[in-house]
TrEMBL record, chains A, B:
The protein's name in its UniProt record: DNA-binding MarR family transcriptional regulator
Gene3D superfamilies: Winged helix-like DNA-binding domain superfamily/Winged helix DNA-binding domain (1.10.10.10)
Organism the protein comes from: Mesorhizobium sangaii
Entries under SUPFAM superfamilies matching the protein: Winged helix' DNA-binding domain
Keywords: DNA-binding, Transcription, Transcription regulation
Pfam family, one: MarR_2
Domain of life: Bacteria
GO term, biological process aspect, one: response to stress
GO MF terms, alphabetically ordered: DNA binding; DNA-binding transcription factor activity
Coiled-coil ranges (or none): none
DNA sequence: GCAAATTATTTCAAGCTTAAAGTTTTATAT
DNA sequence: ATATAAAACTTTAAGCTTGAAATAATTTGC
């Protein structure tokens, strides 16, 4: 007598599993919506937006490895995205005098201008997409996710 | 006098933006970890796991379009993943008599066995990764995400 | 000084992903 | 009946993603 594949999941561990599934679905739902809007309204992509957002916060520039660490993606991945942004004139690489392995990556003037416009729209979209989440819940959720992050970073 | 790019974000709408960023980072962090474990321990991938998980819940099989809707990915995407799973003998396609456009996709016997093993490990990983989230927070978070989902599905 | 280890980045192959266009089959409206 | 539309998939091209291997520059340990 074996449990079928379809009993309502319950028991220890199931609460965490359910939480993970909800979390993943929520973020994929929102991500898909943002991706579509970025394409339709600005003919760009989420990875490009992510890179530009990171660089916008660092006017002095970032190393490739900083970018990949910050964005939680692989090194090789960032290379390709930055290559495309460079070819579009939105981002520039500058070799450094000190260490010739590294290059400082930063937004160009065009990049800053372009990102500013897209970011404003983006913030509006998020307000729209998450509008039904009460201010209170938003802050509570954020708090929980922040403490998740702290625990994660402090893990052995 | 323009606000610099680095003031702590604040004001209306910023709470939602911050929530979204936290949500995205949490799910990417966990996703990256799961991806790595799936590769190392079972030489498989998250998309393959996702498809198999969906099929495991539907012993009678699913249509390709059901799969893509459920997983929130495009049609063509599912085609490729299922192709690979079929070539590995974990999944089977069966043409239906009724409608020759469609094919019922289901796990093979091997697929069921294989998924059972991986899913057990997966649940353990999640328990581990989210272990620091209290039972209470887990349930609260799940509740908020569930209501987000309802609002989303009920949007105009 | 110099070999060995480390660090920063790029390249590569395989696979994932999307949006758009194409194919085949079924349903609908004359 | 038969054109037209709709539905279920697949194919395609471009881009994203990873992990591993390759390059090049710097640092470390004798």
């Amino acid at each position: 007598m074996v449990a079928g594949p379809l009993p309502a999941p319950s028991g220890p561990g199931k609460d965490r599993l359910r939480l993970w599934i909800r979390l993943l679905r929520a973020s994929r739902t929102i991500e898909a919506d943002l991706r579509e809007r970025l394409k339709k309204d600005f003919n760009t992509t989420l990875p490009r937006f992510d890179v530009m957002a990171a660089l916008y916060r660092a006017p002095e520039g970032m190393l490739m490895s900083d970018l990949s660490r910050f964005l939680l993606v692989s090194n090789g991945n960032v290379t390709g995205i930055v290559d495309r942004l460079v070819s579009e004139g939105l981002v520039a690489r500058a070799r450094r005098n000190g260490d010739r392995r590294t290059s400082m990556v930063r937004l160009t003037e065009d990049g800053v201008k372009s990102f500013g416009i897209i970011a404003a729209a983006h913030e509006g979209w998020i307000g729209e997409l998450l509008g039904k989440v009460s201010e209170d819940d938003a802050r509570r959720l954020t708090g929980m996710l922040t403490s998740f992050r702290s625990n994660w970073e402090g893990r052995e």
